[in-house]
């Protein structure tokens, strides 16, 4: 989690420095204490006052700026940092760091810190692919720096090529993953399913449901941020991809089952947050079914009960979206599907239905009493579920 962390944001003199202001804003909104360190070249592109206004902290640009008594600026920054992130990183700053040069406030801070360091190169394509730059990047990787590769796109020069800074959401995701790599789920493998399956009727139509995938995505992201290696098996959704996890795209219940079987061959936890269709058409029309004056009759057959049929020694966590007799129906599923835990929610309750950003759930374990949670964001619900998962994993040792 970013909240409460001190992030030293290094900004060097590339044209993408303006994007660092957006990153500083989003990190601050997420609850981080952002301290910006700028090279002289960066101040020619974006004024320090911009970052000060966005973060609420003074911006450091000089080695010998006034500091609190007994404090040396670059040492205090280095010691306070939970992570140092350089966005953008020019070819020049990368070369200087790779060579161990410490001739300004940013390079001194990098050399002095023991915190994880992330570098996001951004420059013209020719500079990025230059063997010298690539050799310097390789040196930083070998020293356990996290490198966020530049992406292909339109550059400041107007040309197309590699050297463009990735989207800020991608950088945020890698920061979260890096901060959480030693979390309580480090070393664990977790498989999460998300979304609603789509059972084809013909090449155009399908039987589906209203699941948005938001709960499953929140679980996958939260597990990543706690150090787990995550595989997300998802149907098509309108949600952004999650950085730093393995994502498997499926459409149907049968495809999801095959993906779950493969992914759980080596896993510690399976969390089935997907809304899997109970029925699918017995046959799929090869061509689009034309509208006629009469009705349309479909013969449906049951889909596989994935969580019941997939075997293994891993924890099984299920979900129960109900419209009546919430606790009774959830307990039946907990027993009949041999689950370790089930998360039940009444989708008729305001704020707890499909597509909402919040959820109100009851957590039921096979050996405990139902725990009724208040209305929470889906990320908060995800973290509460993973709190219990962590305890259960410790109990299995």
Q: What this model shows, in words?
A:
With 397 residues, the chain is of the alpha/beta class. The protein folds into two domains: 6-179, Rossmann fold (3-Layer(aba) Sandwich), CATH 3.40.50; 189-396, 3-Layer(aba) Sandwich (Rossmann fold). Helices cover 34% and strands 22% of the residues. It is built from 14 helices and 21 strands. An eight-stranded mixed beta sheet has the order 12-11-8-13-16-17-19-20, sandwiched between helices. Helix 10 crosses helix 14 (378-396). The model has no long low-confidence stretch (mean pLDDT 94).
What are the salient characteristics of this protein?
397 residues, Rossmann fold, 5-stranded parallel β-sheet, 14 helices
Binned, the helix content reads: 25-40%
Structural class: alpha/beta
Number of domains: 2
CATH superfamily of the largest domain: CoaB-like
Radius of gyration: 25 Å
Global outline: elongated
CATH topology of the largest domain: Rossmann fold
Low-pLDDT segments: none
Compute the number of helices. Answer: 14
User: Architecture of the largest domain, according to CATH?
Assistant: 3-Layer(aba) Sandwich
**The level-1 CATH class of the largest domain:** Alpha Beta
Number of strands: 21
Gist of the model:
The protein is of the alpha/beta class. The chain has helices at residues 17-29, 40-43, 48-55, 73-80, 91-98, 105-112, 125-129, 131-142, 168-179, 214-225, 253-263, 306-309, 326-336, 378-396; strands at residues 6-11, 33-38, 83-89, 117-121, 146-147, 151-154, 160-164, 189-194, 199-200, 206-207, 229-234, 246-249, 269-272, 279-281, 300-302, 315-322, 341-346, 358-359, 362-365, 371-372, 376-377. It has 2 domains: 6-179, Flavin prenyltransferase-like (Rossmann fold); 189-396, Rossmann fold, CATH 3.40.50.
């Amino acid at each position: 989690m970013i909240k409460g962390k001190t992030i030293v944001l290094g900004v060097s003199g590339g044209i993408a420095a303006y994007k660092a202001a957006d990153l500083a804003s989003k990190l601050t909104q997420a609850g981080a204490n952002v301290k910006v360190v700028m090279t002289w070249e960066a101040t020619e592109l974006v004024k320090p006052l911009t970052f000060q206004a966005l973060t609420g902290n003074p911006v450091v640009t000089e080695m010998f700026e006034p500091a609190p008594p007994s404090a040396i600026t670059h040492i205090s920054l280095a010691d306070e940092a939970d992570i140092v992130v350089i966005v953008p990183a020019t070819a020049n700053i990368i070369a200087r760091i790779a060579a161990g040069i410490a001739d300004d406030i940013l390079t001194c801070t990098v050399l002095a810190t023991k915190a994880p360091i992330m570098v996001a190169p951004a420059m013209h394509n020719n500079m990025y692919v230059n063997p010298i730059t690539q050799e310097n990047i390789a040196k930083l990787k070998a020293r356990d720096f996290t490198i966020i590769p530049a992406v292909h796109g339109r550059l400041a020069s107007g040309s197309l090529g590699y050297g463009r800074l990735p989207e800020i959401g991608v950088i945020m995701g890698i920061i979260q993953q890096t901060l959480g790599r030693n979390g309580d789920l480090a070393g664990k493998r977790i498989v999460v399913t998300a979304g609603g399956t789509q059972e084809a009727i013909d090449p155009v139509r399908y039987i589906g449901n209203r699941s948005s995938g938001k709960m499953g995505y929140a679980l996958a992201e939260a597990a990543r941020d706690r150090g787990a290696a995550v595989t997300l098996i998802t149907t098509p959704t309108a949600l952004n991809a999650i950085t730093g996890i393995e994502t498997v795209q499926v459409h149907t219940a049968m495809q999801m089952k095959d993906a779950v079987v493969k992914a759980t061959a080596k896993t510690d936890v399976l969390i089935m947050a997907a809304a899997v269709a109970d029925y699918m058409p017995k046959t799929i029309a090869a061509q689009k079914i034309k509208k006629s004056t009469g009705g349309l009759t479909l013969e449906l057959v049951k889909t596989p009960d994935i969580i019941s049929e997939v075997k293994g020694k891993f924890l099984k966590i299920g979900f129960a979206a109900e419209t009546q007799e919430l606790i009774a129906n959830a307990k039946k599923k907990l027993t009949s599907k041999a689950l370790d835990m089930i998360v039940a929610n009444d989708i008729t309750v305001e704020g707890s239905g499909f597509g909402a950003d919040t959820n109100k759930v009851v957590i039921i374990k096979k050996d405990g009493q139902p725990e009724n949670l208040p209305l929470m964001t889906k990320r908060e619900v995800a973290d509460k579920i993973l709190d219990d998962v962590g305890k259960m994993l410790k109990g299995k040792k």
